Amino acid sequence: MNKQKRDIEETFRCYYKSLCLYAMHYLHDMDLVEDVVQDCFVEFWERMNAEKTVSSVKSYLYMMVRNRCLDTLKKDNQIDYNSLPSDLENIIQDEEAEERSLIEARLWTAIDSLPEKCREVFLLSKRDGLKYKEIGDKLNISAKTVENQVAKAMRIIKEGAIKIYYFFFG
Predict the structure, then answer these.
(1) CA distance 9 to 2
(2) What pLDDT is recorded for position 164?
(3) CATH number of the domain residue 46 falls in
(4) Are 111 and 123 in contact (CB under 8 A)?
(5) What is the mean pLDDT of each run of 10 residues along the chain (170 residues)?
(6) For a Cys-Cys bond, which of 55, 67, 86, 97 suits 91, CB 3.0-4.6 Å?
(7) CB 133 within 8 A of CB 143
(8) Residue 159: inside a domain, yes or no?
(9) Into how many domains does the chain fold?
(10) Is 79 found in the same domain as 120?
(11) Where is the RNA polymerase sigma factor 70 region 4 type domain (predicted)?
């Protein structure tokens, strides 16, 4: 495998998830988001194969995804200025939007690493907003078990955040 292909694959692994989360702020449709991000990587690959240089890969990819999302919304006449991220109004900078996406990607990575049942209970509670009793009824477990699973998930996520903090700042 040549170096350029390995570099592209590494870039894909490094940025794909956070770029998808970034695009979700615009498009709100995971299938469309994945198409947009994959198209951007194809275009990026073609640019690299043409030996064109990019000064900052991260910034370039985020700019590509943002522009492609906006083009998609314009093309489909679906721009709702009330639901778009505030970076379109220049309230936040691209770097801040990128950082938010990276933080969100880290959070989802932590959630994905939870044990299966714990993750399911946690998502039903925090993402879907169900009450412990509703989750218990849905999964045929007690509300107390739901409470324990949510607490366990929060503890695992918090411990992961502390490890990341100490890795960078400790």
Answers:
(1) 11
(2) 57
(3) 1.10.1740
(4) yes
(5) 73 85 83 92 87 80 89 74 49 61 74 88 86 94 94 86 58
(6) 86
(7) yes
(8) yes
(9) 2
(10) no
(11) 106-155
pLDDT of residue 50: 82
Give the 3-state secondary structure of 32-93. Answer: HHHHHHHHHHHHHHHHHHCCCCCCCHHHHHHHHHHHHHHHHHHHCCCCCCCCCCHHHHCCCC
Confidence at residue 53, expressed as pLDDT on a 0 to 100 scale:
78
Tokens 């695009």 locate to 23
DSSP reduced 3-state for 1: coil
- Phi-psi group of 88: left, alpha or beta (phi > 0 → left; psi -120 to 50 → alpha; rest → beta): alpha
Query: Are 48 and 3 part of one and the same domain?
Result: yes
Verify that 146 and 66 share a domain, yes or no.
no
Write out the residue range of the structural domain in which residue 150 sits.
114-169
| CA 159 to mean position of chain CA atoms | 20
Where among 85, 105, 124 does a domain terminate?
Answer: 85
Based on the domain organization, do 81 and 120 belong to the same domain? no
* CB contact set of 103 (below 8 Å; sequence gap of 6+): none
Question: CA 106 to CA 138: how far, in whole Å?
Answer: 28
Residues ≥6 apart with Cβ < 8 Å to 30: 20, 24
